[in-house]
Amino acid sequence: MKKVIISGGILIACLIIGIASILLLNNKLADDNDISAEVISVEDISDISEASTTSTTIAETSSEASTEASSISNISVTEASSSDPQAASTEETGEKINLSDLVNASSVGENSSVTYGIDVSRFQGTIDWAQVASSGVEFAMIRVGYRDSSTGEIKADTNAKYNMQEAEKNGIKIGAYFFSTAVTTDEAKEEANWVASYIAQYPITYPVGYNCEGFENTSSRQYSLTQDERSNIAIAFLEQIYNAGYTPIFYASRNELSENAKWNTSQIEKKYKIWMAWYNQDTSNIAKGPAYGGQCAMWQYTNNGSVAGISKPVDVDVAYFGYNGIESAKDTSERETASADVEALMKFDPVDETVTAKSTTNLRDKPSQGSDSTVKVTLQNGQTAQRTGISPSGWSRLVYEGNTYYAVSSFLTTDLSAPKQESPQSAQQTSDNSSFKTKFTDCNETVTAKDVVNLRNKPSVTDADSVVVATLSAGDTAVRTGINNEYGWSRVEYNGQTLYCVSSYLKVVE
């Protein structure tokens, strides 16, 4: 009898060891380097979880979001693009966070509420924060700056102050983050000090984050750093932020965090909140947290969200904490009113040249023909302005009589002695069958993309209701039925729909 009991115990032990080995092997075989983003529409953040006093309804869609072909090309990509093999795992649960064990500088009192928010930068363009607030968003993590990956210069996000100002105005609690490429702890402290100074006049209630990506790219300033060095740099930033009176949080993807894969996670998570990016996971009971074995205080569960008031895809987050009030700004002196960066979604190459109108051209307050764009001055042939930038989207930035304006590049010339030309609009028959300000000259030709171009529901990249409906790639064809040379747009028929795109990214199929 005793011998049988011993044999049974050995058998059970062997089975346990065998199962654990299989699970460990499966985990090691998992390719944790690739995550794909899902498209999530945030319609009302007050219904997502019965466990939370705040809520959201999240509807998944199959639409594809894409940045404009004329957008800046050096936007860093947050995650790679294939599914994580652990997505189906339901056995792991997020570690319960003991808030008292983590560094916290809140003076209004942190609580254990589940709260819902977004994180944004200038790459979301001009945000209508009133609409964002009406959707139920409770907090916004706003990018305030970055260290240039080439020059090492610290630069402000051009929409940071506007975003903080407008989020505050509409009752959305503010957090912040900085995109770091620091290569020493001294540089990390410099970044933290810059951030603390930059945000001092705003009520920063949510944490201030350290965001570092792309360090394995050979072009990165951080490429030669060891994991220990990178982790120590991050900790230096987080500690300095805490010393400045803000709650720090560390951002990274689940694949970088898990099992100390790319960071010394086990060291960082003992003291600082973790903000984890992990996409395509089950969000049906999001208030319980992701199926992840480490500490996760904030979960960025998609980078492809759709939120009212934001024309571009946006990161959507859930925080497993909230606050009893709103922090006061550390610097209560009067601050200047911030304006939105009208060039946020366009790349302007710097130039310095004198131009005049070929005939006449309107100078606008923003590079758009939409209803939110106002004609300020009309430039006549013979009158001169200084061109300071040219965008591939077909717009020029001009300085005229001390003010900055925007004009369609094709209506300008550097030949100051050129005689006045006949206006293209008066010389051509234009179709007038839409409510858009943009009028199109009728044509009928087959076109394709030079590379890739977005097809939109209206001829604008800056209007909040301009939506990417489809993407045309090189080799795919559409029929161009109209062209507008003044604003650089084409009207095309594609898959039975009438859509619009930037003409300079198309070519005629011979």
From TrEMBL:
GO terms for molecular function: lysozyme activity. It holds the Pfam family Glyco_hydro_25. Residues 350-416, 442-510 form the SH3b domain. GO terms for biological process: carbohydrate catabolic process; cell wall macromolecule catabolic process; peptidoglycan catabolic process. The keyword Transmembrane applies. Keywords: Hydrolase, Membrane, Transmembrane, Transmembrane helix. Residues 51-73 have a biased composition (Low complexity). The chain crosses the membrane at residues 5-25. Residues 74-91 have a biased composition (Polar residues). InterPro entries: GH, Glyco_hydro_25, SH3-like_bac-type. Residues 51-95 are annotated as: Disordered. SUPFAM superfamilies: (Trans)glycosidases (SSF51445). Belongs to the glycosyl hydrolase 25 family. This is Glycosyl hydrolases family 25.
